[in-house]
Amino acid sequence: MNSRRVSLVGQRWRYFRHGNFHGVSANWLRKQCDGVYASVGEFIQGGSVSTRITLDVLNEGEEIFRSILKEKSGANYLNSFDCEVGLASFLYAYILAEKPLTVVETGVANGITTNSIMRALEITGGKLHSFDIDSRTQNVYKGGGNWHFHHLTGNLEKSLQNQIGEIGNVNLWIHDSNHGFHWQTFEYRLAAKVLSTSGLLVSDDIDSSTAWGFASSSLFESSSAIFDNRKFIGIAKVKR
């Protein structure tokens, strides 16, 4: 076993036992969610989401993520703001499989997730609405896809609510903004209101607060937690 794998196994064990230093553990998430997975690949193979996603396309998404990371990391923020490979590759593969027409993303930062999503939407023809409090982040995507940047100002909750109201139904919602309990809870509830019947909610950093775990019983029909190198991502279908 090489040193990188030893380090990863050790990290997973620490997360399972103790959780993120400012959030919750995998053990706690396991009690709240329908499933906890060691990787996105394991989640896909478990059949918990679209069976049209293949590991080959997931691997393609990983390669695209790494090329985007090399180009964009540090563009606006430190690389600690970048998403991890599991989130980016899943979104790429899911979009190619399900072809959502309207995608919402909160939190742009260096645009790693944004560009991974857009690489898929450039193929499928859908549109992405990205929201951020920092106007600098409107510089992250230069391609020819259907991308709309929204700058949140003033009362951020009202600003997001009002602008989402103009978009209408959403097929895929990705949370990657403020990971505090209050904002995550607010955003998960807002997403649940506008997601289509077949829509999917995806959240980065679900181990940073108890919001995802509590929403799993109150808002979600089914939810999963997936380990993604240094944190957990969540994937859920909302109740109807």
Structural account:
The protein has helices at 3-18, 26-32, 40-45, 55-72, 85-98, 112-124, 156-167, 181-194, 211-218, and strands at residues 35-37, 102-106, 127-132, 146-151, 170-175, 195-203, 220-227, 232-238. With 240 residues, it is of the alpha/beta class. The chain has a single domain (28-238), classed as Rossmann fold (3-Layer(aba) Sandwich).
What's a concise summary of this model?
With 240 residues, the protein is of the alpha/beta class. It is built from nine helices and eight strands.
Q: How are the elements arranged and paired?
A:
Elements: H1 3-18, H2 26-32, E1 35-37, H3 40-45, H4 55-72, H5 85-98, E2 102-106, H6 112-124, E3 127-132, E4 146-151, H7 156-167, E5 170-175, H8 181-194, E6 195-203, H9 211-218, E7 220-227, E8 232-238
Parallel strand pairs: 1-7, 2-3, 2-5, 3-4, 5-6
Antiparallel strand pairs: 6-8, 7-8
Tell me the CATH architecture.
Answer: 3-Layer(aba) Sandwich
Unreliable spans are 15-21
Average pLDDT, rounded to a whole number, is: 91
Number of domains: 1
Oligomer designation: single chain
Write a concise keyword list for the protein shown above:
240 residues; 8-stranded mixed sheet; alpha/beta; 9 helices; Rossmann fold; single chain
